[in-house]
Amino acid sequence: xxxxxxxxxxxxxxxxxxxxxxxxxxxxxxxxxxxxxxxxxxxxxxxxxxxxxxxxxxxxxxxxxxxxxxxxxxxxxxxxxxxxxxxxxxxxxxxxxxxxxxxxxxxxxxxxxxxxxxxxxxxxxxxxxxxxxxxxxxxxxxxxxxxxxxxxxxxxxxxxxxxxxxxxxxxxxxxxxxxxxxxxxxxxxxxxxxxxxxxxxxxxxxxxxxxxxxxxxxxxxxxxxxxxxxxxxxxxxxxxxxxxxxxxxxxxxxxxxxxxxxxxxxxxxxxxxxxxxxxxxxxxxxxxxxxxxxxxxxxxxxxxxxxxxxxxxxx
Length: 315
Description:
The protein is α/β, with parallel strands linked by helices. The protein has 10 helices and 13 strands. The protein has 2 domains: 12-179, P-loop containing nucleotide triphosphate hydrolases (Rossmann fold), CATH 3.40.50.300; 194-313, Heat Shock Protein 90 (2-Layer Sandwich). The chain has helices spanning 22-38, 49-59, 71-74, 81-91, 110-126, 145-154, 173-179, 201-212, 219-239, 285-293, and strands spanning 12-13, 15-19, 43-47, 67-70, 97-101, 132-139, 157-160, 163-166, 194-197, 243-251, 255-262, 296-302, 305-313. The strands form 2 sheets. Strands 1, 2, 3, 4, 5, 6, 7 and 8 form an 8-stranded mixed beta sheet that branches. A 5-stranded antiparallel beta sheet has the order 9-10-11-13-12. Helix 5 (110-126) runs parallel beside helix 6 (145-154), helix 5 (110-126) packs antiparallel against helix 7 and helix 8 (201-212) runs antiparallel to helix 9. The protein is elongated and about 60 Å long. Keywords: Kinase, Serine/threonine-protein kinase, Transferase. This is Anti-sigma factor RsbA family regulatory protein. Residues 14-156 form the MEDS domain. One of its GO terms (molecular function) is protein serine/threonine kinase activity.
């Protein structure tokens, strides 16, 4: 069994587990979970569904003591993962939580991988000083080499062949965050812009609703899109210079994208990724809601303002 040290009181441990094949996966993750249960520590396992079943079977009756989450559902939008991990730790305040999180698996799109990499870096900021251990498995044969390389930059330690070693490539989360701000690809063909300013949120909602009726989105998802766009536009008016523009387009009939551009800035990289406090006057509720409604959220900041892309699948 590999040596993955649990967090010391007030400390945070965040190793990447590089595995090759099912046997190494079950030995590494299963051993981590068994050690936590033996220490009477709360355990959350958030991995893709096929991995969940194998781990459950391997743990036998002990599986009932673990909180299980299908990461393909929770992490469909990587921006939703962090809050779920924090909420699990908060429910067990005063005890060192043990978490397995696998946010990147074979088949993820490049955009999803980029946002999941951003998530992995931000874990180190969000959990700094907390008594928790988050183990992140990486399928070395199934993932691109660049993904494995980035994992060495987002995790302070890495586990290879049962050895937990410091990662020489570990980088400050702010550096990784900046590296993830790559240019967004332009949609095919010309996409018109709909400009708006104060007093025109109704027009934004009407424009979005009329456009969405021509897509393959269900009635419920059309409503979600209108809410997400409305929240983003409201943020433009409140924090983005008082005006903005909206573009809407379909992606080969499988999904839709809504893009908001304005003159705003993102001061807190964790905004929208943590559940906002009800006591906060400006708690990022709009961005939080957008993350809950959308299947992928991409944010890019520049000297001239902010670009927010919201993706929804039609399935």
